[in-house]
Amino acid sequence: METKQHSGTRGAAAAPRTSLIHAAGVTKTFGGVKAVSGIDLDVHEGEVVGIMGPNGAGKSTFLSLLAGAQRPTSGELVVAGRSMRSADRAAMARLGVGLAHQIPKPFRRLTVRENVRVAAQTAPRARRRDLVEKALEMSGMAAKADNPAGELGLLEMKRLELARVLALDPKLVLLDEVAAGLNTRDLDELIALVALIRDEGRTLVIVEHVQEVFHQLAERIVVLEWGQKLTEGSPAEVAADPRVVEIYLGESSAADGPARRAPRPAGGPARLTATGLTAGYGQATVLHDVDLELHAGQVLAVLGANGAGKSTLAKSLAGMIPIRSGTVSLDGAPIDQLSSFQRVRKGLALVPEGRRLFADLTVRENLELGVGARSTHQSLDRIHELFPKLTELSGRAAGALSGGEQQMVAIGRALASEPKVIVFDELSLGLAPVVVDRLLEAVDEIAAWGTAVVLIEQNVHRALALADEALVLRQGRVVFRGDPAAFSDEALRLAYLGTDL
Amino acid sequence: MTTSAGSGTKPDVLRGAPAGGRRRRVAPAARYIIPLVVGLAAILLADAMGRSLANQGTELLLLALLALSWNVIGGYGGLFSLGHQVFVGVGGYALIVILSHTDLPLPLVLITAALLSALTGVVLGYPMLRLRGPYFAIGTLGVALAVLAWMLNWPFTKASQSYPLPMSDSLGFTELFQLTVAIAVLALLAITALVSSPLGLRLVALRDDEFGAASLGVRRVRTLLPVWAVSGFLAGLVGALFALQQGSLTPTSAFSIQFVLDAIVVCVIGGVGTLYGPLIGAVVVFALRQYTADFGEWAMLIEALVVILVVRLAPEGLWGIFGRLIRALRRGRPAGAVPQKEGTS
């Protein structure tokens, strides 16, 4: 049998543990954006460390720095004894740093075993066969070893992803949201497998949205927000920290934010209806059986933790991804078979996550591109009234604007088609609170025009204050739908932070 | 082994697996033996073929060999080279120049010419293999055009004039055919070994997911460079054999972009990134060109139409269709036959 020296001396008292990760002031900027900012972290051999934080907090970026997939802009980062200023991904893999990706991408035309063999080539020739067989065995893929990797199911692909990492005989295993997209039973199996890897004494750094993974595996959790380390501690300590609760749920005092001006009664027939909406990517079904109904002038807040299926809902409403089953209709007419641009013509516009502006075009050009068959250039006047700032920015390139200004352009572009329904996907993502308030006021005004609004928003309390109806997703299913006022903080915590919190 | 699996009570579950397992164990030996037998037969029968048929056979095999060469890097490596004519030209000119200036035996000269071609690949590979996707294609095309321009002006190789093969070194049609068969068979065997080697695995891994491959410790240039050199070596052999067949070279004949275009068309029709696709493709393209030879410009149109049809209807090429048929037959057949065999053993 394999006689790998357990590098980690788990539980061995007093033995000084070697440092596997030493980060001091690690910063990574993309353009002007600080994705990771001044992070200090030390991880010793045999530890299991979890990294959590909201979308855009810099978790995946930090992990890719640890893996050598990207290089830090500044700060000191030493992983497995190697300075990350010069390391690349292949070199780090050869040093025993394994990275399991969020979306497993096996080498499709190779068999499962061949996939694993690629990784084992980093080991001396004599050990390769053992490494491959052991990795297959541990990951439970031995029975499927000769199957083409392209024909595997999602859980099997995730197992293969871990098998490939194991075949590197890694000292340090980095897991990037490996639990994403799995159902509860598969999740348990995956957690059991990760626990097995931990029990071999390997060091683990886990980035995860699915809280169950942390509760069962991590000894220490680092919470990131805005690229910075917010706090660090045991799972229990972190869960009890009010700041952590706040970053997931937004500020608890909604009073100072914009609120509904007046109740907007649901008048007339439904604008947008969805029944039994089911959608996903590849083999993962992300959204199960969602029903919703929205009237003119109403705001529907869609809430839920990261990975709950919010953006998938937005995309399937807007026709960016095909739906698996169910119906979507606008003013009673089915639109689920229409392509996204046809839906825009019918009156359903999307403000996509990340804005997706045409960076080299000016603000005016971006807005004019939004003017469609149903609208005229007069629609632009209304947009300039809504965001007067856009008038002065008119000739600037959209790519040169600040995040908040860009979001205004994105909203304006969607409004230029004079939609009956507008879908905001992560409206405030990565924006400062002041800007968010301004944007939410605009949402309120847009609803007052009689537009039906689907609002996907991380700032839960603010979103609920604006909404006429709330829809809460958890692991792709609707767990609450109804009056936002009836939705308690307890229910929110359950939806966002899991049962144990 | 996989065939026993211990549970003969569940033939339904087992039906797929042993077929796959057996295929995997039997095939490697057959993959080497069958080409050797076919090649040997062709060499022995060459005398009976007559000069014209032998010459056609040589042309067919050169097309196949060229496609095999391109397929190693373009198909298995996913690097769309538009510069393979450089290897052909270097191989061809190297052969003629060496034969003109020395008395070395032909086999040695052939190998030297191909090695020079591979060396060209190594030198070009260092900058070129850092490029990806369309940049690699354009980069290699640019290099090829630059080399052609150089050759048209280089007095050492008689610039744009024809450079003749010394009369004493020219081969008869039959001899040349036999030589080409031998080289083509060895090339096929070498590629068979390469693609199932650890290097071949790394190559396919890089093609399927470059970042994933890097995550498993695969170093891109280090993996691609030897494969690129092998591809250059094989294309250099094509050039050398082409020189022997033609009897003389000009830069525009030896460094013609038509070489790489032919290679791509053959691979696309036969199956890019498959072991035997280039062979099937070469046969189809060659036959097509024979039949449409009298149609003038219509011939090109017909060939283009065939390429479009294949891309549209069988994106994995003719070998892909063939492979699917075989798998379907295998799946259908063993219902009665195979489990019985297992029961007795």
Structure explained in plain terms:
The complex is a heterodimer of chains A (about 500) and B (about 350). Chain A is α/β, with parallel strands linked by helices and about 500 residues long. Chain A folds into 2 domains: about 20-250, Rossmann fold, CATH 3.40.50.300; about 255-495, 3-Layer(aba) Sandwich (Rossmann fold). Chain A is built from 18 helices and 20 strands. By secondary structure, chain B is mainly alpha-helical. Chain B has a domain at about 25-265. In chain B, helix 3 packs across helix 9 (about 220-245) and helix 6 runs antiparallel to helix 9. The two termini of chain B are about 10 Å apart. The interface of A and B includes residues 89, 94 and 109 of A. Chain A: This is ABC-type sugar transport system, ATPase component.
Number of strands of chain B: 2
Give the overall shape of chain A: globular
Q: Tell me the β content of chain B.
A: under 5%
CATH class of the largest domain in chain A: Alpha Beta
Give me the side-by-side strand order of the main sheet of chain A: 6-7-8-3-9-10
Mean pLDDT score of chain B: 87
Shape of chain B: globular
Name the CATH architecture of the largest domain in chain A.
3-Layer(aba) Sandwich
Please mark out the parts of chain B with pLDDT under 50 across 5 or more consecutive residues, or reply none. Answer: 1-26, 334-345
Distance separating the two termini of chain B: 12 Å
Main β-sheet of chain A, in a few words?
6 strands, mixed
GO molecular function, one term (chain A): branched-chain amino acid transmembrane transporter activity
Protein name (chain A): ABC-type sugar transport system, ATPase component
InterPro entries (chain A): AAA+_ATPase, ABC_transporter-like_ATP-bd, ABC_transporter-like_CS, BCA_ABC_TP_C, BCAA_Transport_ATP-bd_LivF, P-loop_NTPase
Family (chain A): Belongs to the ABC transporter superfamily.
